[in-house]
Amino acid sequence: MPELVFFSGTMDCGKSTLALQIEHNRSARGLQGMIFTRDDRAGEGKLSSRLGLVTDAVEVEDDQDVYAYVVDHLSRGGRADYVIADEAQFLAPEQIDQLARVVDDLGIDVFAFGITTDFRSKLFPGSQRLVELADRVEVLQVEALCWCGARATHNARTIGGHMVVEGAQVVVGDVDQSEDIGYEVLCRRHHRRRTTAASARAGVLSPDVLPVDAVSRT
Ligand SMILES: Nc1ncnc2c1ncn2[C@@H]1O[C@H](COP(=O)(O)OP(=O)(O)O)[C@@H](O)[C@H]1O
Ligand SMILES: Cc1cn([C@H]2C[C@H](O)[C@@H](COP(=O)(O)O)O2)c(=O)[nH]c1=O
């Protein structure tokens, strides 16, 4: 049975790498995939991994009907044995429904990759729809780590290394503290306390370092 699979995790946990491996393994066996992406850091029409691999992809536009795009490709004699959609959190909920239709009406596997929640730990609309519709949600095996060593489960947006909670939901960027605006993956405890690696180093007061009395009053 064809499936809609959502591979989800934090930033920097290997989603794009896995997407490229799936593409490599299938194309090595003569299958032809259709690859969608949106707002990859490497630029328009690219699917890239931090390991340095990159491939061409179809850049999904606002209001684009991805189901119609696949049908049009097939009707022109093209092949699509499977579909990959990276940065799927940036797709509109309607486009996720269209991917589900690719599975159900065309019998094609769709592998979607994306982060589930934004820097405020709120679901992206596209990811919410994927959780609602996917046959399977897969959490990646290689865990990204918080600075404290715990499994990273949340994405923080940082300015100058310090976590911010105001701003637009979509700001394309990397897990890079040298940039003005960057991202850092954290465990839930440190995301809740807004303690990034830089603020921990700077000894910024957080409930982690407050006296027990003070913690019980907060
Ligand atoms: N220099 C490196 N050596 C080994 N692995 C690396 C290196 N740089 C990045 N990685 C691996 O690549 C992962 C990020 O892969 P990527 O596919 O770009 O992530 P995602 O798409 O989830 O943001 C890191 O978690 C790490 O496992
Ligand atoms: C948390 C968060 C992330 N983004 C952006 C930043 C990156 O461009 C992508 C995630 O890419 P990755 O391959 O998973 O690292 O999403 C955003 O726009 N808003 C956010 O809140």
UniProtKB/TrEMBL annotation:
<dbReference type="GO" id="GO:0004797">
    <property type="term" value="F:thymidine kinase activity"/>
</dbReference>
<dbReference type="GO" id="GO:0046104">
    <property type="term" value="P:thymidine metabolic process"/>
</dbReference>
<keyword id="KW-0418">Kinase</keyword>
<comment type="subunit">
    <text>Homotetramer.</text>
</comment>
<feature type="active site" description="Proton acceptor">
    <location>
        <position position="87"/>
    </location>
</feature>
<feature type="binding site">
    <location>
        <position position="183"/>
    </location>
    <ligand>
        <name>substrate</name>
    </ligand>
</feature>
<keyword id="KW-0067">ATP-binding</keyword>
<dbReference type="GO" id="GO:0071897">
    <property type="term" value="P:DNA biosynthetic process"/>
</dbReference>
<keyword id="KW-0547">Nucleotide-binding</keyword>
<dbReference type="InterPro" id="IPR027417">
    <property type="entry name" value="P-loop_NTPase"/>
</dbReference>
<keyword id="KW-0808">Transferase</keyword>
<protein>
    <recommendedName>
        <fullName>Thymidine kinase</fullName>
        <ecNumber>2.7.1.21</ecNumber>
    </recommendedName>
</protein>
<comment type="similarity">
    <text>Belongs to the thymidine kinase family.</text>
</comment>
<keyword id="KW-0237">DNA synthesis</keyword>
<feature type="binding site">
    <location>
        <begin position="9"/>
        <end position="16"/>
    </location>
    <ligand>
        <name>ATP</name>
    </ligand>
</feature>
<dbReference type="InterPro" id="IPR001267">
    <property type="entry name" value="Thymidine_kinase"/>
</dbReference>
<feature type="binding site">
    <location>
        <begin position="170"/>
        <end position="173"/>
    </location>
    <ligand>
        <name>substrate</name>
    </ligand>
</feature>
<keyword id="KW-0963">Cytoplasm</keyword>
<dbReference type="GO" id="GO:0005829">
    <property type="term" value="C:cytosol"/>
</dbReference>
<feature type="binding site">
    <location>
        <begin position="86"/>
        <end position="89"/>
    </location>
    <ligand>
        <name>ATP</name>
    </ligand>
</feature>
<dbReference type="Pfam" id="PF00265">
    <property type="entry name" value="TK"/>
</dbReference>
<dbReference type="GO" id="GO:0005524">
    <property type="term" value="F:ATP binding"/>
</dbReference>
